[in-house]
Amino acid sequence: MLVNPTRGYHWSDAETRALLTIWGEHDVQTALDGNFRNSHVYRDVAGRLGDMGYDRTPDQCRVRVKSLKRQYFQAKKASKKNGHFAKIFRFYKDMERILSSRSSAGLDAHDMDGMGAEGDETLDGTEEDGESVDQPHESDVDAAGECSNMEYPVKIEYPPYPIPVTVGSCSNAPDVPAKQSEEQTSTMPSSSGSRRHKKRFANLSLEKLMEKFLEQSLEAEENFYRLEEQRLQAEDLRRETEHTREMHMLQMLGQMFAGLSTPTVTSSTAPQSTRNSKTAPSVTHARPYGGSQSLQTSQVDYANPSPPAAPVIERTYSLGGGAHRSMDILPLVKNIIPPLTSKKHKGQDGRIGVIGGCQEYTGAPYFAAISALKIGADLSHVFCTKDAATVIKSYSPELIVHPVLDRPNAVEEIEKWLPRLHCLVVGPGLGREDKLLNNAKEVIEKSKSRGIPIVIDADGLWLVSKEPSVIQGYQRAILTPNFMEFTRLYEAMHHQALDSTDLRVTVQQLSIALGNVTLLLKGEEDIITDGNQVLTCSQEGSGRRCGGQGDLLSGSLGVFSHWAFSSSLNATEGMNPTLVAAFGASSLTRQCNNQAFHKYGRATTTTDMIQEICAAFMKLFET
Predict the structure, then answer these.
(1) pTM > 0.70
(2) 61 a known binding residue?
(3) Is 526 known to sit in a ligand binding site?
(4) What is the rounded distance in angstroms from the CA atom of residue 509 to the CA atom of residue 538?
(5) Is 108 annotated as a binding residue?
(6) 102 among annotated binding-site residues
(7) Which top EC class applies here (predicted)?
């Protein structure tokens, strides 16, 4: 077993006093003073102890002397406060006698008073090999100067021969009874007993923590909603103020234009206009916004329409381009949306009919009908051919499919359902077969006689380009052409090539030629006009143009048309309901396209857009 050679051996009082007697001799103190290499001095001290019968090594002697000096300086420092510590250290007087003589020899007493454990090196210097030797901590040394908490096991060796003890060699040092020392040691305050116990706090239970967290969350949520409500009220007030200011400006402009004289037609063009008017067909015009009663006739030159008597004030609205006037239309769209209440019955919010669907095209009528349901219609009917019925039914069980469009009595079969329908969408997947086009034409005539709003798209526009009279003058109709379909309609009505430099003007001209039928030209910006007003919807969409996107527009437009015509004049603030409906459907379709494109990119399809209808509708009209 390894034993530390410099510590851990028990020093008896006799050995300690013998060591102090030798260490306190004049020649030893003289050798230690001013000599930093003192290993030879402690070898001499150990040799003298051996002569006295105590077998100790030089390192053990040096460590013991350092321990005694440390205890002495601690006792001397403490004695200035209470005067008792000097009595506890039994070798205090011996150390006082030796060190006081060294102080008188040249060591300042003030320096000795301030020395602690580090003062040993000042008195005795460093070791010869230059390395420090481990010293026991003061808390590990008891009052007798021994190690009470030894790090290594102790091996006590006894010499094989008896040790002679010279009693007279230590007689000059007063002895302190061991019993008295033990009693005084027992009276010393324990450092461990004086420690203050840490105050422990009871932890809160998990239920209380969760309850407190929920209370704070509810409070924060209430504050958020209160601030949001204040913000919305301020925003509504700002919109009302801007709307009032714009209406005032428009009234001023109207008064200015009313004072202007109406431009007259030059004599060179008058004969031509007269000649054309003689050959122009006579058509019926419904009263504003498509009233079904009090019809009146008038002669209109559709090949060369004359300019309106009063200038047309063009108003442009935009959602995504930064213009703020779109906020004038969005509140109108929100006004026509019926609230969801438990007092309504099935079918009250919309029963939409779709005329279309043949063997080649089964997806288009499905997209239009399912879009109407997703927006808020209660029932959606599809009148298609027998070959397409089974396929369309397999797409969705929510649709009511009628396989009657190619029957000989198709018009009679569909006419039975017209009293139950609120709007008719004609064209998605209709095809260009003459039989189907003729049936669609007769169904349109039956619907016009009942004043049902009609949305015409796709192959229905092909029918209108061939026979414009089928829809001409019916102001409850909305046409939704793309650029190619619009070009075909324009050339059919004006018998000249389309000038696409200013599409707003040409769209307005075509609407006037059709008897102020509302047009929605799909493109980079959707242009909407009834011949009197021009709206532009530039809600942000995407560059992706997938098949079926127009069917989503036509189906949603059918629902918005029913809502617009079912609302009061105050809800639309006197604006043509078809314009409000077209603007709402256009904004919703473009928003669906934008959201789907952000998720799927180039892979976006109409099915992806239909899945975004709910989120887009809430974002635009319910927030």
Answers:
(1) no
(2) no
(3) yes
(4) 21
(5) no
(6) no
(7) lyase
